[in-house]
Amino acid sequence: MRADTVLLFVVAAVAVVVAVRWTAERTGMPSAALLTIAGIAYSVLPGPNIPLNPSYVLAFVIPPLLYSAALDSSLLAIRRNLTTVISLSVLLVVFTALIIGVGFTWFVAGATLAAGVAVGAAVAPPDPVAALGVARTSGLPVRLVTLIQGEGLLNDATALTLLSVAVVAAEGDGFSAPSALGQFLLSAAGGIVAGTIVAYAVRMLRHVAKEPLTANAVSLVTPYVAYLLAERVHVSGVLAVVVTGLIIGHDAPRWASGASRLQTGAVWRLVDYLLEGLVFLLIGQQLPQILEGLRQYDAGTIVPAVAVTVGVVVLFRPLWLVLTQTVPAAISRRFRAADALSGREVIALSWAGTRGVISLAAIFTVPLTTTAGDPFPLRDLLVFCTLVAVLVTLLGQGLTFAWLVRVLRLHASEADQAVLRNEARSASVHAALIRLDEMDTDEPDADPRLIARTRERLHTRLRRYQGRLDSLRSGAEVGAASSADYQEESRMRHVTIEAQREELLRWRDAGRLPDEGMRVLERELDHEEHMLPPK
Q1: What is the protein's membrane topology class (predicted)?
Q2: pLDDT: is 501 or 418 the higher one?
Q3: Is 205 found in the same domain as 307?
Q4: Is 491 part of any domain?
Q5: Is 451 buried (19+), middle (13-18) or exposed (0-12) by CB count in 10 A?
Q6: How far apart are CA 237 and CA 187, in angstroms?
Q7: Same structural domain for residues 136 and 156?
Q8: What is the number of structural domains in the chain?
Q9: Looking at the structure, do residues 316 and 424 belong to the same domain, yes or no?
Q10: b or e along 385-420 (b: 16 or more beta carbons within 10 Å of the residue's beta carbon)?
Q11: How many CB atoms are located within 10 Å of the residue 140 CB?
């Protein structure tokens, strides 16, 4: 394919991604579903399609997506909900893959257990992107958001490790459960070690990578370093990337500068935005090729394979959640009091099982041929089953998730979160005042005028936080009024910040303020606006 053709395709793809995201924001529909449909629509039009190279997908696409998600996750929140997270991200994934594998051996002619486990591993992990997007806009409680996010990180590592084991088994003498379990545990443990090593190596670079651009360069290459190190020693590169991201995301506030964190966050949001969009478009374009490969199978093979895959994906998750919540609660009162989910939370989590980019990208990493040079068994059928599972969950569960959250009335209180944030702000100012008093006592050379000026600024900020806290707490006494007051205050602050920007622009346009000074002051307003909820 000519370079100008590829460039034209990339420009067109970015335009489609932007248009689809814009549509998704205004309609509430999951962008992943719309992008996949757009890719399918393009695939039936005349013109070139860019094929997905399976060897590049896992190495270039998945590491940055997983690393970015890990950076935004909470290691402490995952640890607090570790029992449920492990149940969903490890045990549920393994049992889903095994059940699909057994179903293939029973109902699909010519299928081996290893081939069935391969497609099962690909479709087992839900993609949290669509569910989290709806969850946050729907006001889903923080605990459920944490569970979806934690599950989405760890289940990818579990599934892709299991997939690699199944592929090796399918290329060899068959699938051995004890051997697969041993390989899985060794690969997972090695991935954790490799990720920890890379994370602490990055921490050691903090003195060298202080400048924001340097820190961003290190951040962008980190997931690839973690993945390459793990793959070189034949352990889970995916788990290494996740562990690296969790550790760095947890420790970065201690050593990364504020400017670096803001810039790194913006860079990774752009990477996610483009990578996820382009991958969904590219995968949608593979439909003609996938359908072409199905010609070698009859309906008696295709229908049972699709039915087993989709049936297990849709039905086994709610069954697993019900069993894992009711059985331990019946045995242990401690579990029932501390860890159990309510019935409404179980329903919401059951429906937050949309499959997406990881499933499709993973199944495309299955090689075209075995090590002996023979075609990989049922590969085209496995890819088609994965695509159907993704489309069914994206369109079925993804499009109805927001409606379900409203019906269940699972809403987090924004006012309660605002109270907590302002309490933390007040505590941080108190800590600063204590440190200033220590400087006044322990550093005789410190200028008392500067100390007094800094103390007054801190007291001014503390009074502002305390006033906001009093307003929020008084609103909480009358229920929903607190949320309305908080939203109205946020709207007023957005309006006043916009007025300040307009005034700065007038000064700049009149020649009274140089562009460099304008950018500095505008950045200050941007930081202040970034602390507010979106309009």
Answers
A1: Multi-pass membrane protein
A2: 501
A3: yes
A4: no
A5: middle
A6: 9
A7: yes
A8: 2
A9: no
A10: bbbbbbbbbbbebbbebbebbeebebebbbbeebbe
A11: 25
Same structural domain for residues 349 and 421?
no
Q: CB of 178 within 8 A of CB of 169?
A: no
Tokens of 62: 């998945």
Choice between 534 and 386, residue whose per-residue pLDDT is larger? 386
Residue-by-residue DSSP string for 23-90: HHHHH---HHHHHHHHHHHHHTSSS--PPP-HHHIIIIIHHHHHHHHHHTS-HHHHHHTHHHHHIIII
Half-sphere exposure of 100 (CA within 13 A, CB side): 35
Residue 381: half-sphere exposure toward Cβ, Cα within 13 Å: 28
Domain identity same for 150 and 283: yes
271 pLDDT band, cuts 50/70/90, is: confident
For residue 359 the two structure tokens come to: 């499933």
Q: Is residue 9 within 8 Å of 48, Cβ to Cβ?
A: yes
Residue 56 resides in a domain? yes
Verify that 380 and 472 share a domain, yes or no. Answer: no
Please report whether residue 377 resides in a domain: yes
Please determine, for residue 374, whether its predicted confidence score (pLDDT) is greater than 60.
yes
Residue 250 domain boundaries: 3-408
DSSP characters over 107-134? HSTT--HHHHHHHHHHHSSPPHHHHHHH
Same domain, 339 and 445: no
Identify whether residues 161 and 205 lie together within a single domain: yes
Q: Which among 408, 441, 461 is the end of a domain?
A: 408
Confidence check: pLDDT of 305 > 70: yes
Place of tokens 């059951």: 350
Question: Could you give the 3-state DSSP secondary structure of residue 251?
Answer: helix
pLDDT at res. 97: 93
Q: Which range among 116-125, 261-270, 368-377 shows the weakest confidence by mean pLDDT?
A: 368-377
